[in-house]
Amino acid sequence: MSLLELSVDLRASVQCGFTGLLVSLGAKWSNDSTELASTLFLNPSGIVLELNLSYLEQQLSLPIVLSTDFSPFLALAAAVVPSAAIVLGYHFLIIPRRRSRRLAHILAARKAFEEDSDARRERTAIEALLKGAVRKSIRVETEREGLIIQNAVYGAAETDDTTENIWLDVTTPTQALVHNSQLHIPGGDTKAALQGFSDPAPFTLKSLRIRYIFRGRMHYAEIPDYLPVVLPLAEHQVDGIFDQP
Known about the structure:
chaperone
C-alpha cells in the first residue's frame, strides 16, 4: 500500500516572524468526494493541530491547541498519530469494505450471466452459424500451415476467489475472424461487443487468451481487453502447450 494509492499530499513550511520560527507540517487525504487535511503548527509559544474536513460542498475546520509550550515529544506524536490512524483505517476498514462490495457485485453479475438463457442461446446460435465458415477457414489454414486457433477464452484478467472460472470459450468466433493467416481486432473497445462474445465477468478487468498454431508451431498470447489483437507474432511462440485456464 503506497501513499499514492491513498492520494496523500504532504506539505511542510518554515516561516520566520517576530515571535520566532513557525513550522507547519501538513497532510491531505482525498478521494472523489471527501478531503481530510491536518496541519500541525509549531512555534515557541505552543503547538496547534488544525483539522479540516470537506465532504461534497460542506466544510468543517477544527483548531486544537495541544500545548501552550513547545514540546518535541508532543509535536512528534501530533504529527505521527493522525497519519497512522488514517493509514490503519484505510487498510483495515476501507479496503475490506471495498472488497466486500466488489465481491457482492461480481457474484450478482456472475449469477445473472449463468442464468441468462437468452444470451446463452444467442451465443449458441451464432456459433452454429459460424461453424461452416470456421471449418472452411481451418481447412484452408491447415493446407497453408497458417493460423489455426486451438483455444480462445475471454474473461477476468486476474484470477482470484471472486473471478475463478469466469471464462467464456470464444474459440469458434475468434477463428471466424482469421483472414489470410492473420487475425486483427482493433483496440479501443471492449471485446465483449464482438460477434459471439459477451461479458462473463462484469466489474473486472478482462483479457483474451489465445492458444494458436502458426507454421506448425504453438503460440500463446494474452491481450488486455481494450488493446488491439494482432496475430501471428514471433514473440508469441512457445515450446509447450498451455492448459486451458
